Amino acid sequence: MSKVTVFNHPLIDHKLSIIRCANTNTKDFRETVSEIASLMAYEVTRDLKTKEIETVTPIQPTITKTLAEEVVIVPILRAGLGMVDGIHKLIPTAKIGHIGLFRNEETLKPECYFIKMPPTVKEATVLLVDPMLATGNSAEAGIRILKERGAKKIIYIGLVGVDEGIATLQSNHPDVDIFLAAKDERLNEKGYIVPGLGDCGDRLFGTK
Ligand code: URA
Which stretches of the chain drop beneath a pLDDT of 50? Predict the structure, then answer.
């Protein structure tokens, strides 16, 4: 069974409080989401492999460690885009793939309209970012698409999730560890997370 990590950290809690507030403007919302993603990336990447190299400091030669793994960041469009920069700042060598999904209003299932992956997706550690883990259907579809393209090591990163979304991912993809900044109470009748932070895409891009 996959590991579920819900961050319990004063800085992340403080920044979550800012993005949950309905009065936070688009600029502050976007910047704060990016900062939370950076803070989360620090812990999410704890198990990345390193290799030893020889480095000459101003004093003498020594052995230092550098990243030995490719990392690919994959946002699910469009809200996932808000978390990319914060992670990319910490791992500037990471490549970025994109998955576009929309909800088919008849089947209520996510359908894919866009996929672009770097060729390294097969051997890389893939960080799938989708801020709101509500029903879990879009993250589940995103993981399935990544696996169809040969990804073997996938980590899911979201801001806020509920038990239902976690259960969807764990039952379909028990090999994918889950990292959330917070776990909330429930979904409302429209599928929004309660108390949540509203529609993350609209709040990031000012579309409402
Ligand atoms: N997507 C959002 O943007 N917000 C929610 O609360 C649930 C899904």
Answer: none
